[in-house]
Amino acid sequence: MPASIAGDDFRAPGVELFDFPPLWPGAPYWLTKPVVLAAVGVVLLCALAWGAFARPALVPRGLQHLGEYGYLFVRDQVARPFIGADAERWMPFLLSLFSVILLWNLLGVIPGVQFPVNAHIAFPVVFALVVYVIKLYLAFRHHGVGGYLKSLMFPPGLPKPIALVLYAPLELLYTFVTAPFTHAVRLFANMFAGHLLLAFFSAVGFWFLVEQPTVLGVPVGLLSVAMAVVMTALEIFIQFLQAFLFTMLAAMYIGNALHLEH
């Protein structure tokens, strides 16, 4: 950006947005803003669930209607297509996973909070590891270690020499390394990039309209504010989409572990 427009003091937001010190001097190193937001989000989600289903009515209204719609969405779009007959058994886990991820994502567009918890890599990693452990536990329990590995390495119809040399190493690498890694990074990267873009357009708009308004800078500031509004709407969609995709992949992994033919 030309110095005549931006001035010499403007600094675009960077990765320092994600560097959170302890809340006060002497506080535990882990007690940071993302941790507090995560805890508050879980408490808020529990309160919403209690408000929705503490006294369920025959004809749902308000929070109960919203809660039932969320349940039906996860059941019909996530659990049943990938888990099948065992879907209802896994609904508490999948619904909780979808709800907390979505709520933590939406914190990124709430004024005064404005940080999606899942933009901190530790939280998606924990979610992915939980799903990964469940997947391996179910696969080993239902099919045995040998049976599960055999199904991965030697699919029906593929000659065993080719499977052993080419297919098996790639499939084992994907199952035990790539899949859990990408499961976490997909959610983290989208929340990280979205937060950074919103911060950038907001900072540019504030700089040119409030801090250093100039004849050339005001149009840039107005455009940046408009972009921030558009990006906020897009970010809300992406936040919902990423919660859906993460939960869908979790259901797919569980379904594959239970039913190897899938």
UniProtKB/TrEMBL annotation:
Record's GO cellular component terms: plasma membrane; proton-transporting ATP synthase complex
- What job does this protein perform? Key component of the proton channel; it plays a direct role in the translocation of protons across the membrane.
Family listed: Belongs to the ATPase A chain family.
Q: Which domain of life is it from?
A: Bacteria
Compartments annotated for it: namely:
Cell membrane; Membrane
Q: Which GO terms describe its molecular function?
A: proton-transporting ATP synthase activity, rotational mechanism
- Chief subcellular location: membrane
Question: Has keyword Transport?
Answer: yes
State the organism's lineage: Bacteria, Bacillati, Actinomycetota, Actinomycetes, Streptosporangiales
Q: Name one Pfam family in it.
A: ATP-synt_A
| The keyword Thylakoid belongs to this UniProt entry's keyword annotation | no
State the protein's name.
Answer: ATP synthase subunit a
Xref: HAMAP family = ATP_synth_a_bact
Instruction: Say which species the protein is native to.
Output: Microbispora rosea
